[in-house]
Specification:
Oligomer: single chain
Distance between the termini: 40 Å
Order of helices and strands: HHEHEHEHHEHHHHHHHHHH
Length: 345
């Protein structure tokens, strides 16, 4: 019975519930997310917009929590029930970049009640380049720079940019089965990266990318004009910078195939360096053991530190998301209806 009631809840219900509260009480907006992993991210985003007048509650739709195709299920199941007081928060995946070329993309872009990351997924924000060094410091308690992580990610992004445009092109033109997101991900990820010579990994990447581009050019010999037009659209209309391409590729591929293979060996080096320093400075064996034990207990896994980062709020795609949420707050406070300006651009 409780589940059946929950399935009937809609934005009007939560709006009415807000009106029945005391006049000075905050209006509550319920935000449904795709999975457990999304709860903290969206809480960290939405809390910045909370005031005495508006509060958010991040929730999981129980029947969809563990299902496949969570974003599509969330949008389709909740779509008719969404409104200013009941919203859906999802990963953009490629659907934002499709700009209406698919049904899911049209749904994502046409609803002012569906909020998306603009970046491919939450993992892309967690891998925000300017935050990587800080994550390493949090993980190892060692502030020494071994590799310029921002420079690496910028060069990485510029190398994969032309192939990334091809990936979007094949999806927009209904050729996804010929060159899938997974196939693209295999080309632009690494098994390991030598932190002493990260340029070697980038050079091998460049070779793989050029080889894949050559294959696509031969497969689609008439695509040059539309490819160039798409590249211009991505940059000028959607504001995607080649140096930030990493924000728009598959999130799991970025995290597991680029950032962690880069950061794990760096963090291992920094930990060994700190432990060596402790060993050299210790006055006797007992002090050495105590200091090493304390240091090891103070360390944290690098992937955990990445998930706690909030520096992504300075990124380009986040500014688009922030503007969408601000428009929602304005509608709720002013009791206005959505306009064309409320749609995702």
């Amino acid at each position: 019975m409780a589940k059946r009631l929950q399935e009937q809840l809609n934005s009007q219900y939560f709006e009415l519930a807000s009106k029945l509260r005391p006049r000075n009480a905050a209006r509550k907006i319920v935000a449904y997310v795709e999975s457990y992993d999304d709860v903290f991210f969206w809480r960290s985003v939405l809390q910045d917009f909370e005031t005495k007048q508006v509060q958010f509650e991040v929730m999981l739709p129980s029947r969809l929590t563990l299902s496949k195709g969570k974003k599509a299920a969330l949008m389709n199941k909740l779509g008719p029930r969404l409104g200013d007081y009941m919203i859906a928060c999802v990963d953009a995946d490629y659907d934002y970049l499709m700009q209406g070329a698919t049904e899911t993309s049209r749904t994502l872009l046409s609803s002012p009640y569906i909020f998306h990351t603009y970046a491919y997924a939450i993992e892309n924000y967690q891998c925000y380049a300017p935050a990587l060094h800080t994550a390493c410091v949090m993980s190892t308690l060692n502030d020494r720079t071994i590799v310029s992580l921002e420079t690496f990610m910028e060069e990485y992004s510029k190398i994969i940019w032309p192939l990334f445009v091809w990936s979007i092109w094949v999806h927009r033109n209904g050729q996804a089965s010929e060159y899938s997101i997974t196939a693209f991900g295999r080309t632009v990820t690494f098994h390991d990266i030598n932190p002493y010579h990260p340029e070697n990994a980038l050079e091998h990447l460049r070779e793989r990318v050029n080889k894949q581009i050559g294959w696509l050019q031969r497969k689609y010999p008439k695509a040059k004009e539309s490819y160039l037009k798409l590249r211009q659209t991505l940059q000028e209309e959607l504001g995607i910078r080649p140096a930030e391409t990493y924000l728009y590729i598959q999130g799991h591929a970025l995290m597991d195939g680029v950032v962690l293979p880069l950061l794990n060996p760096i963090c291992n080096m920094l930990r060994r360096e700190r432990e060596k320093e402790i060993s050299q400075l210790a006055l006797h064996g007992q002090q050495k053991q105590n200091e090493l034990s304390g240091y090891r207990h103070s360390q944290s896994a690098i992937d955990l530190m990445l998930r706690k980062s909030v520096e992504f709020k300075q990124s380009t795609p986040y500014k688009h998301l922030s503007a969408d949420i601000e428009r929602l707050i304005e509608r709720v406070l002013n009791k206005t209806t959505p306009s064309s300006n409320d749609l995702h651009q």
